[in-house]
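tl;dr need the bound structure. longer version: we got a ligand (2-acetamido-2-deoxy-beta-D-glucopyranose) that a collaborator sent over and nobodys looked at where it sits. i said id run it. heres the input, straight from their email, havent touched it
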Amino acid sequence: MVDRSLLPAALSILLLSLHRASFALPLSTNSRWIVDDQTGNRVKLACVNWASHLDAAVAEGLDKQPLDNISRLISTMGFNCVRFTWPLFLFTDDSYSNLTVRSSFESLNLIDSVATLQFHNPHLIDLPLTDAFKAVVSSLAANSIFVILDNHISKPGWCCSNSDGNGFFNDQYFDPGTWISGLARVASMFNDTPQVVGMSLRNELRGPKQNQQQWFQYMQKGAEAVHSANPQVLVILSGLSFDTDLSFVRKSGGGTSVKLSFPNKLVFELHWYGFSDGQAWVNGNPNQVCGSVVSSFMRRGGFLLTGANGNGGGSEAGEGGEEYYPLFLSEFGVDQRGVNVNDNRYLNCILGVMAEMDMDWALWTLQGSYYLREGKIGLDETYGLLNQNWSAPRNGSLLARISVLQSPFQGPGLSQESSYQLIFHPLTGLCITRQSTLLEPLKLGPCTDSGAAWTYTTDHTLQMKESPVCVAAIGQGKAVKLGNFCSDANSRWNPISASNLHLASNSSDDTLIYCMDVDSNQNVVTNPCKCLEGDKKCDPASQWFKIVSTTRDLLRVTTDSRVITNSHEPS
Ligand SMILES: *[C@@H]1O[C@H](CO)[C@@H](O)[C@H](O)[C@H]1NC(C)=O
Ligand SMILES: *[C@@H]1O[C@H](CO)[C@@H](O)[C@H](O)[C@H]1NC(C)=O
Ligand SMILES: *[C@@H]1O[C@H](CO)[C@@H](O)[C@H](O)[C@H]1NC(C)=O
Ligand SMILES: *[C@@H]1O[C@H](CO)[C@@H](O)[C@H](O)[C@H]1NC(C)=O
């Protein structure tokens, strides 16, 4: 078997792109994984949300850029998928479906949008709204981007509140019968578009009427209706309380109480924002908040991936026959100006969870602006991946941090020949990497570098893969060292604090505790551990690392393998 880590980088990249191109559709599920039906290989959904459910019921941004340019940009940014939102009434109510893009804008007095959309997308301006919707799906499909059609709301407009009449079955705008016929219509409309791989049945169920009994009753009916109309698509079920709670779908003894007549298409989705926990992140110590919010996430939905005891996953069935399901984190995101401390702290925590659990996900959100949102024309979206002109990323640093999550770490079809750990640093999106000689300091670098592969051993050493060389703490503010001292006290690294994100080691004389940290040159050093508990003011994120197990191929070869095999303790 070829050791891919030794191939020239260009060839590895070629192999990777061949691997990517080999996906066949449709998709189905195998335990917690979404897989390609034909090969059984994992397909990781790395999506971005694109809104088409607001007042105008037109995909946002078509007044800023040509449609195909936006689709290409999504692909260039590394996403393989779009969660494309739609309002129910677009497909069930003539007063919307009879409108063209032009007449929809005119009815909202969006005169500038008529002109700018006509300039950038002249072929769309006089299409009926439903045909404009289909044109966006076609453009995404033509750019090999998967589409998940998300029924976001009934009546076009900004979503969501407890009292907007769109929250739960039998609310003012949410007639279950209309919803089911709309789902069936949309499902069959895209029967011949294999890139439409899934349907999110209803976004963020909520409000005073919400209850579990009707959740089961209608979600099961909706799923059956979608499957009858289009047996190819994954059916994706959103939880209660704004899609933050799926705890009630867990059957005692494991698995789920959701009953469907068809196998291998059921996926659950959950949303998780900084503000899901109010201002908890600024009002508490980040280690303690991260610890408690993650435990809560596991109870509310994470159990679907790992089982109730948190250590299953990946296999067909866990202890006691527990079944696993894919959990699609279909909305997460932050204010990209970096000014929201609550969001910043949350992001450092959630990126670690997303890497460790290797979830499928969709960032909120693509749109840099809206035609009209909550009465405001041309509103800037600070959570938007694109700038207000839709010409480029709003903040490249966010994209850099999430790019490591865009390809799978684990799952069926990944080369099982190499299994190793990454030491992921959520604050930067980079990983601890060794350089081409053992004497050079460890640095943060791309997680795809061969130097990023480590073995985290059962006695808690961080060992170079297949080589008895370990990372040791030397002292405060000093670079960590690599050498043949795997049995020393200062080579044991334990995850500590309520977040488990600090990697702590004793000093060589066993009297002090140091935490792994990063200096301003991205050298990996040790420092006193930062605010492990209590302190609310301090942000420990420079010291947050997540050990992530993976079998993914390494892309870039930075290390000369001869250096590894001939290595001895550096001075
Ligand atoms: C859209 O893409 C085409 C083809 O690459 C390019 O010629 C054109 O300038 C782009 N339009 C905008 C507004 O960037
Ligand atoms: C929508 O168009 C159809 C077909 O032209 C027409 O019969 C119907 O009355 C229209 N409905 C509305 C609400 O305009
Ligand atoms: C981009 O995000 C980083 C990290 O949050 C922040 O420090 C920076 O100011 C942001 N840049 C812009 C242009 O908003
Ligand atoms: C958006 O486009 C306008 C007009 O071309 C330009 O003045 C502005 O600088 C652009 N803004 C961004 C963020 O690119």
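gonna send this back to them w/ a short note. The chain has a mean pLDDT of 91.
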